[in-house]
Every structure is written in C-alpha cells, then in structure tokens.
Design goal:
The chain is mostly helical and 220 residues long. The chain has 9 helices and no strands.
C-alpha cells in the first residue's frame, strides 16, 4: 500500500483512540498550583468576586479565554505573565481546563460524622460555595433569562460549549463583566461588542443576577 493511501487510515485510528487527545488531569492539577494564588485551590475565586469562580466551568470556555488572554485579545494584566505562549502551551491549556471543569463545589455545608480532624473539616467546608442572594424581581429575571440567555448559557445557567456557566458565579464579578460588555471593552456576542445585554434595562440585568442567585441549589 502506498504511503499516501495509509494517511486516511492513520487519521481514523488517531481519532478513534481516546488517549491520543486525552487531557492530563495530573498536569492540570499541577498547573492549578499557579492559578490557586488568585482563584484558590478549589477554583472558587475571590470571596468578594475580585477573581471569578473557575471550578466546574465549561472546558471550551476556559480554553478560549486562556487563549484570548495569551493572544491579548482579552486584556487582563494579572493573567498576562501566566498565559503567554512561553508559559502556557495549548496542551497546558487543555489540561488545566479539564481539571478545573472536574472540580465540584457543594452548595450546602457538609455533614460531619465526628471522626474528622480539624484539617479535614476545614477542607470539606472550603469546598462549599454559596453565593449570597441579591435583591431583584425573580419572576422578571427568570422570564428574561429563559428568553434571552438560556439558549447559550443553558436553562439552569450552567453554560454549554463555548458559553460560560453563570450560576454559582460571584454577583459582583458578573456585574463587572456586564459593565465591560456595555462599555464595549469586552465583546459579549461572537459578532461584536453589541449584544443582547445592550437591549436590557439596568433593572432587568439586576433581576437576572438575582434570579441566578436563586437557582444555585438543585430543586428537590
């Protein structure tokens, strides 16, 4: 068989093998040691929303944003030294994105058995993340979110594909990103800086943020 005839079979074999493109979660955990300085060991981010929650975030979204930071198409000074190509390669980005996506943060305080030592209790409690409720018209927030936002961010706000998870994110952080979108400093939609947020009133946005804080815990 001539060599050029083998190429399609080689490509098919590579695509069929999950290990070829599998992320290295141990490498991702190692890389997270650097991220933890701002985003914490478990990816919770800053308690006041100065740094976003990245635990459980969509893989494709994390990858795209890290590449945007690296290419400087999204300007973020704290991220600059960590995301330039000499520091964070494409494979590194794949590994850290997969690792962060796999971190689960509880929304309820743990139940202790009494056998845990102080450090174990601390680590268990550290994985709990509850965003404080904010004021707003929940019915209006739900209506607008489901009509305008759910197609990209999912009905439960957990994101999908290239679009980020919003539920469980710090309200202060989300508001800051909304402000950047509205000023045109950060593109909201793929087609440019003008998107659905530009058509919403300030109170509508407040209501959406309030609604997101109301759906953190799954319904029984």
């Amino acid at each position: 068989m001539r060599s050029y005839l083998r190429i399609p079979f080689l490509l098919a074999a590579l695509m069929a093998s999950p290990s070829v493109f599998a992320a290295d979660l141990e490498k991702g955990k190692e890389i997270n040691g650097t991220c933890a300085a701002c985003h914490s060991d478990n990816g919770q981010g800053g308690k006041r929303g100065e740094y976003p929650r990245i635990a459980g975030q969509q893989v494709k979204y994390i990858e795209s944003q890290l590449k945007n930071f690296r290419a400087r198409t999204r300007v973020n000074i704290p991220m600059f030294p960590y995301t330039q190509e000499r520091e964070l390669s494409d494979s590194d980005i794949k590994d850290i994105a997969a690792y962060l996506n796999g971190i689960e943060l509880d929304t309820k305080m743990p139940t202790y058995t009494g056998k845990e030592d102080a450090l174990t209790k601390l680590l268990m409690a550290d994985k709990v993340m509850i965003i404080p409720r904010v004021e707003g018209n929940l019915a209006n927030g739900e209506k607008i979110f489901q009509k305008q936002c759910a197609a990209c961010h999912g009905k439960a706000g957990k994101g999908r594909g290239m679009f980020p998870m919003l539920v469980g994110q710090y309200t202060n952080y989300l508001q800051r990103q909304v402000d950047l979108y509205l000023k045109g400093d950060r593109p909201h939609d793929e087609d440019g800086t003008i998107g659905v947020l530009n058509d919403l009133k300030a109170q509508d946005i407040q209501d959406i943020l309030a609604y997101l804080t109301s759906i953190q815990e799954p319904k029984e």
